[in-house]
Amino acid sequence: MSHIQVAQRVTRLPPYLFGRINKMIYDKRTAGDDVIELGMGNPSDPPQEMVIDKLAEAARDPRNHRYSKSNGIANLRREVGAKYFKKYGVRLDPTDEVIVCLGSKEGFSHMCLAMMGPGDTAIVPSPYFPVHVYGVALASGNVITLPVANSDKFLSDIAYTCETLYPRPKLLILCYPHNPSSVVVEQGFYDEVVKLAKKYGLMVISDFAYADVAFDGYHPPSFLASKGAIDVGVEFTTMSKGYNMAGWRIGFCCGNREMIQALATIKGYYDYGMFQAIQIAAIVALRHTDAAVEEQSVIYQGRRDTLCDGLARMGWEPNVPKAGMFVWQPIPEPWRSRMSTMDFAMMLLEKGNVAVSPGSGFGPAGEGFLRMSLVENENRLKQAVRHIKQCLKEAEDEWTAKGEVTTEAGKP
Ligand SMILES: Cc1ncc(COP(=O)(O)O)c(C=O)c1O
Question: Which part of the chain is the Aminotransferase class I/classII large domain (predicted)?
Fold first, then answer.
């Protein structure tokens, strides 16, 4: 009998759904297979040279190796405020309305801890980015998921939930451009959110991780640009995606000062702030690399077109995203009826050497979908489509050889 009794907050977490896939990717790579990785939204392009140079220069300065401030250095918070003003016309007080986080995921989780407790409920859009649900669960809160696909319906579902649930939900989590579904909204959506938040006493967290990655002239709006938003909520942004700095772990939370203060209090106990050299290099990135961030979106747009064209040529019907780093792809029949999303993804990996994320990794609403990320280059994406096609042809032949008959509806 083990003496180790792990806390319930750990044991009540579900098994990590991507574990099986990650293990197979590892085993295949160890065996020398070339796996095309369309699973995680983990950028593969490097940050700008000048940012890396600044990091190296700052790392050589002995003054930068001490503990830093847990809410971030003042110049970086000022730069984040300047970006919000330039891009969204939002004025922020860098002292009380901006905080630096060790990646936006860390900030988000600790914000949940700062806002939620036993008996509190959060509304989360589904399918969901896992930390949107488990950040709340780890803070002992409850979650109600509402479908994100139709934004008008999502708003009316929020109102209905607030009218009918007792005690009322306390927190509304938003994420646009949405991961995994790539749903986007316009500013008017956030105007309505602010009205609902004020009417029902909801606090809002907007996860704006894909703020910098958008296509075809679309500009993702900021929640904070809606009138009164700062009275009811905060917004997280990150340097992981548009700036290709995912491994650096640098993100920001901006907006309502009471919520930021609560996050700062928690962070003050948990961490000593980010390596100062990273913060200094991040200032350079924010100040001088706008053009590169835009160029990166153009690169993702090219990859999106390559992948969606390839899938369409196979007879699939891709959801062509306007922003973000993913194609949220419905699995076509007969495969959708034949096997679970997880088994389908495992088959593509095992037989086709293409790793994708099964939609069920984003909750039950993701069943029947695959999330394919745009982190590989266009040649590799073309190769991925060829592999998928070949893999499905072989599986179909096997299916037929076994004497399985597929009806129109895809049911054997
Ligand atoms: C919606 C969303 N939020 C947050 C994150 C995490 O970002 P960060 O690297 O800033 O922690 C991701 C990363 O995949 C994401 O997709």
Answer: 34-388
